[in-house]
Amino acid sequence: MIKYCWVFVFLCACSKSAPVPDLPEPPPVPTYQWVAQERVFGFYNQYRYSYCPSVVKDGSGFTHMFFCGNPEQTIMVDNIFHVKWQEGQALTEAKSVLQPGVLGSWDDHHTCDPSIVQGEFSMGGERYTYAMFYLTNPYSAYYNEVGVAFSNSLDGDSWVKYPKQIVSKPWTYEGDELLPNGGKSWGVGQPSAFTLDKKGKVILTYTVGDIQGTRIEWAELDLSDMDKFQRRNGNRMVQNGLVNIGYTGQDYTCNSDFAVDIEKNKIVMVRPVQPHPSTYPAFLNESLEVNYMDLSDFMAGSGKWEVMLRISPYMTGFARNHNAGLERNGFGEISKWEEPTVYFTVSKAAPEVSAGTTTHAEWTYHIYRGKVVKQ
Question: Which of 168, 221, 193, 161 is nearest to 326 (CA)?
C-alpha cells in the first residue's frame, strides 16, 4: 500500500501547472529596400550599347567599371570598355581595352562579359596583378567560350591574352552542337570570379548552355603560372531556393555575378529572373534578384538561396532590367554583404523600340546602379 500511495503522490505532483517563462520575441524577418538609383553611363543619342558591367572599387577610392560596348555605330560587335571615377567626380572617357582576336582565331567575334579579379598571376615569365575573364566566340560559329587576359593596372589600355580557352564548350567535336528543336547550343560564358586565397587560385563561375539545359557551374582554377595551367571540370551550382518570375515554381539561372564576405561566411548573387517576356525584346529579362547563402554551403554544393530583393520594372522605371554586376573590391569581396550596390543594364521595350537598324532595343542599353538597404 505504501508503495502505491507514493507513486500516486508523485504523479499528482508532476501534474501541477508550472509557471510559463517569459520567452523573448522572435527576431523580425529582415526587409530590404531599393534606394539611390541613378544613371551611371550610356552612349546616348548614338547607335551604340553599353551593358554587362563589372565593377571594382580600389583601395584609393576609385571605382573602375568594365562593360560591353560596340566601337562602331550600328555594328554589333562587342569590345570590353573601361571607365573610372571617384564619387562626386566625372567619369573618364570610355576606352576599349579588350578586343576580338585576329580573323580566323578562336575569339575573333564578340569579346564581352568581363569579370576582374586581383591576385598573383604569371604568364610567359611576366607577373601580373589582375586577371580579366571574358566571353568570346569565333565568327564562324554560334557557341561561346571563356578566355582570360592579364594586366598590372586597372587603367591599362590593353590586356595580355592567354592564347587558349580556359573553359571550353562542353562538347568535344568541332563546330556547333545542334539541339532537337533545330537551334544551337550556347556554349559557356558569362564568367564571374572571386578569390579566397588572394593569390593565384580563383573561383570562376560561368553559364553553361548545351543539350542538357542551362545552368551555372563553378571551378577552382590555379592561375599562378599560366605556363602550367590545367583545366578543371565544373561543379554544378546549387539552385535550391530560386523562384521564377511568377512565383509558381523553381527557377534556373544564368548570367549571374557574385561577391563574397569571407568573414561572415556569405556569398551574394545578382541574377536574372526567368523566364523571358514574350514581347520585344523577348531575349531580355524583366527583373533581377539579389540572393544570398552561406559561402561554405555554396562550396559544398548544398544549402538554399535566400531572397534579399527582387528588382522589378515598377521599381526601376524600365521595361527590361538585365546583365547586372555587384560592386566589389579587387578580390571579389563585398564590405557589407546585406547592403550590396548593384550595377545593371536597362532597356526599352516595344512599342518604343523594334527590330530595325536604327530602332533596335540595343541602342537603349544604358547602365544604372542602385543600393539594397536592410531595414
Answer: 193
